[in-house]
Amino acid sequence: MKVDEFIREWENEADYVMGHTSGSTGAPKPIKLLKADMRASARATNSFFGIGEDSILALPLSLDYIAGKMMAVRAIEAGARLLVIEPSNRFEWPGQCDLLSVVPSQAPWLLEHPDGPRQIKNVIIGGGPLDETVKRRIVNAGYRAYCSYGMTETCSHVALARVAEEPKPYEAMPAISFELDARGCLCIQAPNFSFGHLATNDMVELIDDRHFFWKGRIDNVINSGGLKIHPEILEKEISACIAEAFYIIGVPDEYWGQAVGLVVEGTAEKAVEAYEKLRTKLDHRFLPKRVWAVEAIRRTMSAKLIREIPSKMPLSL
Fold first, then answer.
1. Which of 125, 131, 167, 212 is the most exposed place for a label (fewest CB within 10 A)?
2. Which conformational region is residue 235 in: left (phi greater than 0), alpha (psi within -120 to 50 degrees), or beta?
3. DSSP state, 173?
4. Torsion sign (Cα): 152, 157, 161, 162
């Protein structure tokens, strides 16, 4: 979608625009996004970052997805200037701007611009987890960057976490608050939005009604003989051991019910090398019991990894 197409859709008489879910937990689905919700979200973000009519917003993302649409709405709501840039992992550099929105695969490009932290006032990184090594390098480079938490249904993020040397909690956007349900999953309270209350499948450590640490999705949790293992937390712990793209997933196990599985993008030699490193680092309870090497990990249109058990046989270890 081109920006003029989106503007026409935004300015028509309908009270919604069409979008699609990311596809990370199933096939992408069309969804009606209420313009009132999008305005509320845009105003909250503009307030958080101090975006006004003198601001410049840079958009190297597709307008087919919520992250791109919301950058356009933020600019419209604030009367700010919007720099629309062809989406690419090595996008045309925007120069001076107040807010840049990228996905994790674009984040390393920030590190190739020494003047970037002086040119770009704030960076939002969303769409999936940010590599721990890249995160540290962004901090050391001096960027004021934030990881986002949200979903298509909430019209982009409802919370942001500052990228820092030590992990920072997610902080709610203005007029948003949080609570836990009986499963330990996050519930979003958003009186300014049409949904009002939204229960998620995200397990979190709730600090107070406006701050939390994200653990992972409840539907990803591995129950291995009663031990609950969060793949996303384990991935952070072992990220320094594996240079290639990878993910952790629960696999059926006759003895434990479920066991840890490791899927590595690359050759069998690289996957075995990664496993041997993990043998010296991990408690045996967390060590992968099945390992796969795949030519390419499937990803959504927004570059999120799709967690699935490969159809091929695991490697012999």
1. 167
2. alpha
3. P
4. positive
260-304 pLDDT, tens digit per residue, is: 999 999 999 999 999 999 999 999 999 999 999 999 999 877 677
Tokens of 140: 């050391």
Residues in the chain: 317
Cβ-count burial of 260 within 10 angstroms (0-12 exposed, 13-18 middle, 19+ buried)?
buried
pLDDT by residue (tens digit) across 219-263?
Answer: 999 999 889 999 999 999 999 899 999 999 999 988 889 999 999
The residue whose two tokens read 């597709």 is 62
Question: How far, in Å, CA of 279 to CA of 263, rounded?
Answer: 16
Instruction: Please provide the DSSP assignment of 48-109 as one string.
Output: HHT--TT-EEEE-S-TTSHHHHHHHHHHHHHT-EEEE----TTPPP--SBSEEEE-GGGHHH
What interhelical angle do 66-78 and 35-49 show, nearest 10? 70
Backbone angles phi, psi at 109, to 5 degrees: -65, -30
How many Å apart are CA 250 and CA 248, to the nearest integer?
A: 7
Whole-angstrom distance, CA of residue 168 vs CA of residue 133: 16
Q: Rounded to an integer, what distance in angstroms lies between the CA atom of residue 107 and that of residue 110?
A: 6
Its pTM surpasses 0.90: no
In our burial notation (b when 16+ CB lie closer than 10 A, e otherwise), range 132-171 reads eebbeebeeeebebbbbbbbbbbbbbbbbbebeeeeebbb
- Measured between alpha carbons, how far apart are the two ends of the chain, in Å? 47
Class of residue 55 by CB neighbours under 10 A (exposed 0-12, middle 13-18, buried 19+): buried
Contact 126, 147 (CB under 8 A): yes
What tokens does 273 get?
């090398």
